[in-house]
Design brief:
It is built from 11 helices and 8 strands. By secondary structure, it is an alpha/beta fold.
């Protein structure tokens, strides 16, 4: 880290105080006035080391094979079921935590679900959540199987499951205007997630109080009834526009009637601008 110390005791104290591992920061900014040949050689060696690590990762069999094929199969089958599942590149945090897989018995998906309880400041990552269960059953199972410290924080806020509201972030909404989807407790996981974009696994926010529920603006969903109403209004508006459209003036009709006469006139050579005046 390029800090000078006098003895081993000072080195140990420095590592504890600054949480230092004793290695120099090779990516820190160096002003041009301090840039030397030694700095250039250090940067060159650093880039070479990064390239070697990338090539080593590509050849590593642990990044290929069964795991990669199973994730591709999960994405393909989930798409056929109607899910909009988006998988992230391997090596990132969410793929490492995701254990979602296909269920051979129900022919569905067993999801990894990230439950967030803002009222208690607790986050729970629940695996093997069947998409045939309702959200109320899943939530009860999650709370009942918690360890004692987290259970004591959550239970006072979730004694009446029927009054709890669940929300899932709309991944297609802009960052400056975040919206959410409401997940009814009586609906199944499959019914709530189909047709909605999911990045690796769903993240569900548990809102308890009314003031807390207002913090999650719900995305308006267009149903078939509203669509028919809009289509009906559109048809009515079209008839209304036709009724208000003025009739064609008589001059226009006369011009249209003379169209055949205009077509019978000889063609004028557009290359000669004076041809129309017959100046030859």
């Amino acid at each position: 880290c390029e800090r000078r110390t006098c003895r081993m005791k000072c080195v140990k104290a420095h590592k504890v105080k600054f949480e230092c591992d004793g290695k120099r920061d090779r990516t820190r900014f160096i002003p041009p006035s301090e840039f030397t040949d030694t700095t250039l050689a250090s940067d060159f060696n650093f880039l070479e080391e990064v390239g070697k690590n990338v090539n080593r990762t590509k050849r590593d069999p642990r990044t290929k094979g069964i795991t990669s094929r199973s994730r591709k199969r999960l994405s393909s089958q989930a798409s056929k079921m109607g899910y909009k599942l988006q998988l992230m590149p391997s090596g990132m945090k969410r793929p490492k935590l995701n254990r979602s897989h296909l269920d051979g018995q129900t022919k569905g998906v067993r999801w990894t679900v990230d439950f967030r309880f803002p009222c208690a400041g607790v986050a729970i990552l629940k695996h093997r959540v069947s998409d045939t269960h309702t959200w109320a059953d899943v939530l009860r199972h999650v709370i009942d199987n918690l360890d004692y410290p987290r259970k004591t924080k959550i239970q006072p806020h979730t004694r009446e499951i029927e009054k709890v509201a669940l929300f899932m972030a709309n991944e297609q909404s802009p960052a400056n205007k975040k919206t959410y989807f409401s997940l009814p407790l009586t609906s199944t996981v499959c019914e709530s997630l189909i047709g909605r974009r999911i990045i690796e696994y769903p993240t569900v926010y548990v809102a308890v109080t009314d003031s807390e529920q207002k913090q999650y603006p719900v995305e308006e969903e267009h149903t078939g009834e509203s669509k028919d109403v809009k289509e009906g209004q559109g048809v009515g508006a079209a008839h209304h526009t036709d009724a208000l459209q003025p009739s064609r003036p008589p001059e226009t009709e006369q011009l249209v009637g003379r169209r055949s006469d205009y077509q019978q006139q000889p063609d004028v050579n557009s290359a000669d601008p004076y041809a129309m005046f017959n100046l030859s």
